[in-house]
Write a structure and sequence with these properties.
With 374 residues, this protein is of the alpha/beta class. 51% of the residues lie in helices and 18% in strands. It has a 7-stranded mixed sheet, with helices on both faces. It is rod-shaped, with a radius of gyration of 31 Å.
Length: 374
């Protein structure tokens, strides 16, 4: 245009300053840093930025029941034995067998026997049958405790006991049959109370548009009662431990993004398989290590909190990117002399270009810091 060198340098410097992509570089990491920091302050430990984005895309939440929806501290509520047997003698055999087991229901029976001041007997032989129950040889007698599948392999279950089991299950209790020397003689029922916060947490998940599924090893009656009480969309009962990861895979193959929430060793494969694994803080080390997110407060309400925080962070990132792009898109042509060329207007001074560049970074940082209040 026949202008002097200082005219060209003025435009060159202004463009160089205002086109600086600092705001663009700050837009995503700043929001992630503030978002995950906020989560950590609330006991929600999100391990990385990718997990935060995956939580945002989730469509389905799969919940383990014991220790996640419930307290994980079952207690014996009913001990029903055929009148021809001494109740304390049978309790002694049952508790002695369960003392070798590591199952939380077994621990509840042992604790119940201690309250009754029953002395335990040594176990000669013990066998744990996955998802069915246990067998043991004690003082020359064979005792078995478990579900109907186990009992059907031993003896016929009396119809009176089957009716009693249904009644107990309808009260959200977990009934188990007792067999002595291959004869079904009674029932022991255990109840694991639902956490006070579970109902509200599940409602909040559904309000966020998520499908909520419960996986439980309980019989169909007990699982359905608990699931219906909590308003769960889909209830999976009599789930074997190794089936949980297969359930996650099945949901993924159906095009769903799955959050798996659990606390036990049995949950570790499913936590690893899921798009997002969430381990409650009271869970086992292997479950926590397999998860992408750890909920330190052992409170199911932290699941919708984490999801809401993820939504807010991704929304914040998009706002930041829009601002960063917006500044450069509008400012760069002005710095290049667009107003001077077409409208005989002023040039953008390098001083104002520097101020605009700084303001773009500051606005991105301030917007990200809003996440602290989420």
């Amino acid at each position: 245009m026949g202008k002097p060198l200082n005219f060209a340098l003025n435009i060159f410097i202004s463009v160089l300053i205002i086109a600086c992509p600092c705001a663009l570089g700050l837009a995503t990491p700043t929001a992630i840093m503030v978002g995950t920091g906020n989560g950590a302050s609330q006991g929600i430990l999100i391990k990385n930025g990718q997990t935060l984005e995956n939580i945002h895309n989730a469509t389905t939440v799969l919940l383990d029941k014991t220790g996640t929806i419930t307290e994980g501290e079952p207690t014996v509520t009913d001990f029903i034995i055929n009148e021809s047997f001494d109740k304390d003698d049978i309790l002694q055999l049952v508790a002695s067998a369960e003392s070798v087991s590591e199952h939380p229901l077994g621990s509840a029976i042992v604790k119940y026997s201690e309250e009754k001041e029953i002395n335990l007997l040594p176990t000669d032989h013990f066998e744990s049958i996955t998802a069915r129950g246990i067998k043991a040889d004690i003082a020359g007698r064979e005792i078995a405790i478990g579900n109907k599948k186990l009992m059907d392999s031993l003896s016929e279950v009396p119809s009176s006991l089957e009716a009693q089991v249904k009644l107990l299950a309808n009260e959200a209790k977990t009934p188990m049959y007792i067999a002595l020397d291959n004869e079904v003689i009674g029932i022991v029922a255990v109840m694991d109370p639902i956490k006070e916060t579970s109902s509200q947490a599940i409602k909040e998940m559904k309000d966020l548009g998520l499908e909520v599924i419960m996986a439980s090893g309980d019989n169909q009656y007990t699982a359905n009662i608990i699931g219906e009480e909590l308003g769960i969309d889909r209830i999976l009962s009599e789930v074997m431990p190794e089936d949980k990861s297969a359930i996650v895979l099945e949901l993924q193959n159906a095009g769903k993004k799955v959050i798996m929430v659990g606390d036990g060793i049995n949950d570790a494969p499913a936590l690893a398989q899921a798009d997002i694994g969430m381990a409650v803080g009271s869970g086992t080390d292997v479950a926590i290590d397999s998860a992408d997110t750890v909920l330190m407060h052992d409170d199911l309400r932290d699941v919708p909190k984490a999801i809401s925080l993820s939504h807010a962070t991704i929304r914040n990132i998009k706002q930041n990117l829009f601002r960063a792009f917006g500044y450069n898109t509008i400012g760069t042509p002005i710095a290049m002399g667009l107003l001077y060329l077409f409208f005989d207007g002023p040039l953008l001074s390098p001083m104002f270009a520097a101020a605009a560049m700084s303001l773009s970074s500051i606005s991105v940082l301030l917007n990200a810091l809003r996440l602290r209040n989420k």
